[in-house]
Write a structure and sequence with these properties.
The structure holds 2 protein chains of 2 kinds. By secondary structure, chain A is mainly alpha-helical. In chain A, α3 packs parallel to α7, α6 crosses α9 and α7 runs antiparallel to α8. Chain A starts with a helix and ends with a helix. By secondary structure, chain B is an alpha/beta fold. In chain B, strands 5-6-7-3-8-9 form a 6-stranded mixed sheet, with helices on both faces. In chain B, α2 packs parallel to α4 and α3 crosses α4. In chain B, 51% of the residues are buried. At the A-B interface, α1 and α5 of A face β5 and α2 of B.
Chain lengths: 229, 254
């Protein structure tokens, strides 16, 4: 219970900081909208609705992946600026609570971007889902968590690296491949109706398994990463 | 092992005189550069030690090793007979950077850090409002710390460490960026801090221990029981300060 309180303290602080500056949200929104508009203009989805459905899952996740990388790269910048991270290391609060608070805050920021992006995406790609659309309510948060939990962890890992802007995508993209495969397949399956619900459920279960494994690993290793010299 | 020579001031409460911090043959290497070389010293519970030395002498590294923020390459550091990491509840560290979020107000910063020290149901570790008043800042000041002057940030940072009610206070250049009046106020506050009661641990009466680095010897010596001088990562001199001087920092500063 006390652990949960510490997570909420960190989360509240991160939400307040983002509310004051809106750095992450503005950056992510601009980037993801740009990707959607450029792809929308390039593919002419109204003339080729089937092709649009087939590629839209991939485009959506590419936009979200790159947008979240821009934000995740900066997710520990505020802690680094005035050596705040050292004050956090000196505090008796568990390091993993700091990590979870930050990861949940990042999840909420990306979900806000998704909420804004979704209607624009539907309009630009002229989408009508042929599968069970409610499954997206599971796929989107699970896929987003897979990106942010690893992204938050690797951003912390790269804090002391000279080329940390480069390091995050280099580490995050290969590690996220299984999750990306599952989320793109499941999303495309819902939009095109090509996959039956059992196949989509299999992808969702794989995504869930990925999330559980990597969240556990990140929580267990975060204190070591935080105290690394 | 070298023992700390400590002259206790009359204002310090009676305590167990055991060493609360012990460094045994501690070295810290960064590649081929040795920031600390074979440092062996100890700090008595309830003492106030000031560390002098030129830039790059190893003062900050020594404090960071005691704080558990960096691990020594060789040697051992014990704080209250344990690893520094195990004593986070009892040790506070203030570096020359403020360790505060620029976007938050002083009160929001202190509330946040106070919550990190919370153990159990209540956030009663310290009182952020009282801590801010103690360092001469208005808790109602509704400006983000990023807009504060360097001196105000320094004082907010001191409030941050004081509110956690530490038994060991490690301060790295606490008087830098402060004007004469603020520095004098900080010295008085630290002298007062040493008199704050400490809850007994395992039946032993505790006391407040301060270790700090500075270049301003005139400000520091009235407060100190002992001075250490560092050069090239080594302690080259360890001297007790006369009792008459250290009796009351407030008196000495007029």
């Amino acid at each position: 219970m006390n652990y949960l309180r510490h997570v909420l303290d960190h989360l509240r602080k991160d939400l307040r900081l983002e509310w004051r500056s809106r750095d992450s949200l503005n950056g992510m929104l601009f980037f993801s909208l740009l990707v959607v508009v450029v792809f929308g203009l390039a593919f002419d989805p109204t003339s080729y609705p089937t092709v649009a459905r087939q590629i839209s899952g991939g485009i959506l996740w590419v936009a979200l992946l790159f947008a979240s990388i821009t934000a995740l790269n900066q997710s520990w910048a505020r802690e680094q600026r005035n050596n705040v991270l050292e004050a956090q290391r000196m505090a008796p609060s568990p390091a993993s609570a700091l990590f979870l608070g930050k990861a949940i805050a990042n999840l909420l920021f990306v979900l806000v971007v998704e909420a804004v992006l979704a209607p624009i995406f539907i309009v630009f790609f002229n989408l009508h889902a042929l599968g069970s659309i409610w499954l997206l309510a599971l796929i989107m948060p699970l896929g987003t968590w897979a990106l942010v939990v690893n992204g938050t962890f690797f951003a912390a890992l790269g804090l002391r690296a000279r080329n940390r802007e480069l390091l995050l995508p280099l580490l995050l993209l290969p590690i996220s491949l299984p999750a990306l495969l599952a989320m793109v397949q499941a999303t495309t399956g819902v939009l095109t109706g090509d996959l039956d619900p059992i196949q989509i459920n299999t992808w969702i279960k794989q995504l869930l398994g990925y999330d559980i494994i990597f969240t556990t690993v990140c929580i267990l290793l975060f204190e070591t990463v935080l105290n690394a010299e | 092992m070298q023992t700390a020579e400590t002259t206790r001031s009359s204002s310090t409460p009676p305590t167990d005189v055991a060493d609360c911090i012990v460094l045994d043959s501690v070295s810290k290497l960064y590649g081929s550069f040795a920031a600390l070389r074979n440092v062996t010293t100890s700090f008595c519970t309830g003492s106030c030690t000031v560390i002098f030395g030129e830039n790059g002498a190893g003062k900050s590294t020594l404090l960071r090793v005691i704080a558990g923020l960096i691990t020594p390459t060789r040697g051992t550091v014990t704080v209250f007979s344990g690893h520094p990491h195990q004593q986070r509840r009892r040790v506070a560290y203030m570096s020359h950077s403020p360790m505060l979020y620029d976007e938050l107000t002083a009160m929001e910063n202190l509330n946040y850090f106070s919550s990190l020290h919370r153990d159990g149901g209540c956030a009663c570790v310290g009182n952020p409002e009282m801590a801010l008043r103690a360092v001469g800042l208005d808790p109602k000041l509704n400006r983000p710390v990023g807009q504060y002057s360097q001196g105000m940030r320094q004082r907010t940072s001191l409030a941050r460490v004081l509110q956690s009610d530490p038994e060991v206070l490690l301060l790295d250049e606490p008087f830098s960026n402060l004007d004469a009046a603020s520095a004098k106020h900080m010295v008085e506050l630290l002298a007062d801090f040493r008199t704050w009661p400490v809850a007994p641990v395992n039946g032993v009466m505790g006391a407040r221990t301060i270790v700090f680095t500075t270049h301003q010897s005139a400000l520091a010596e009235p407060l100190a029981d002992r001075t250490l001088t560092m050069r090239n990562g080594q302690i080259v001199e360890s001297q007790p300060v006369e009792t008459q001087i250290s009796t009351s920092a407030t008196e000495a500063l007029g």
